[in-house]
Specification:
cilium, flagellum, SAF_FlgA, three-stranded mixed β-sheet, five-stranded mixed β-barrel, SH3 type barrels, alpha+beta, eubacterium ventriosum atcc fold, 19% helix, signal, SAF, 5 helices
């Protein structure tokens, strides 16, 4: 009861310390080599001139957690609902509008590219992706190289080509026709049964499985090698996976 009282008190007290909400800009650009909160966020107000980092090259990659902490110290609240790990800040000026300004930004953007040619099914390693300049970033271009590591190439990938979200997928840890253990956990109730995977899939992917006893087919979410789940735990895993790949 004491713990609940403390939690309740914290819940009431939290809003008093909440900062002014801000939104991360679609284009994070710094013109003078000093990255400020105003370069990063819309609505920074009086804190816009607060420096966050220095940029010596054509771009700088910032830790999203460090940026969030700097914003909080300046009285701003960035929720980072997309779960970003890094923020890329490019050099140059952003004009208010106009086709010429749009072309300038599009013609000098930082994108992740493949450092080597990769075969279909190969696991992506940290050294396999590098930043490079491109005329135009793909619509589904990832901005966090860490999220590519450990993924598998969907097809053969060419060295120097821009990275796209459709290039990779979670490694397949359940094979079609494999017997897997299906679990259900909710509010202290735990059940498990054996089922036949009707398709393969990686962790977080939904596959069809057939109960080996009843022959009934249901959908389950892959949780690991030879393992899948149904129920609330499965829904949470799907949500976590979709959040992870919301890179921008």
């Amino acid at each position: 009861m004491k713990a609940l009282a403390i939690l309740a008190a914290l819940a009431v007290a939290t809003p008093a310390f909440a900062g002014a909400p801000v939104i991360l800009k679609a284009q994070t650009v710094d013109a003078d080599g000093v990255v400020t909160l105003g370069d990063l966020f819309d609505g920074a107000g009086a804190a816009a001139g607060t420096p966050v980092a220095a940029r010596s090259g054509s771009s700088v990659i910032l830790s999203a957690a460090a940026v969030q902490a700097a914003a909080r110290r300046a009285g701003l609240d960035w929720a980072n609902a997309q779960g970003l790990r890094t923020i890329v800040v490019s050099g140059g000026a952003v004009a208010a509008s106009g086709p010429a300004a749009s072309a300038a930004v599009r013609g000098n953007v930082d994108v992740l590219t493949w450092a080597r040619s990769i075969g279909a099914g190969e696991m992506i390693q940290p050294q396999d992706v590098i930043w490079a300049k491109a005329a135009l970033a793909p619509a589904d271009a990832p901005t966090d190289p860490d999220l590519l590591v450990g993924m598998a190439a969907r097809r053969a990938l060419r060295a120097g080509a821009p990275v796209t979200g459709r290039d990779v997928a979670a490694p397949e840890v359940v094979k079609a026709n494999e017997i897997v253990t299906i679990t259900y956990d909710n509010e202290g109730i735990s059940l498990s049964l054996q089922a036949k995977a009707l398709s393969g899939g990686g962790v977080g992917e939904t596959i069809n499985v057939q109960n080996v006893t009843s022959k009934k087919t249901v959908q389950a979410v892959v949780t690991g090698p030879g393992q899948a789940a149904v129920g609330p735990a499965a829904e949470q895993l799907k949500l976590t996976r979709s959040t992870r790949y919301a890179l921008r």
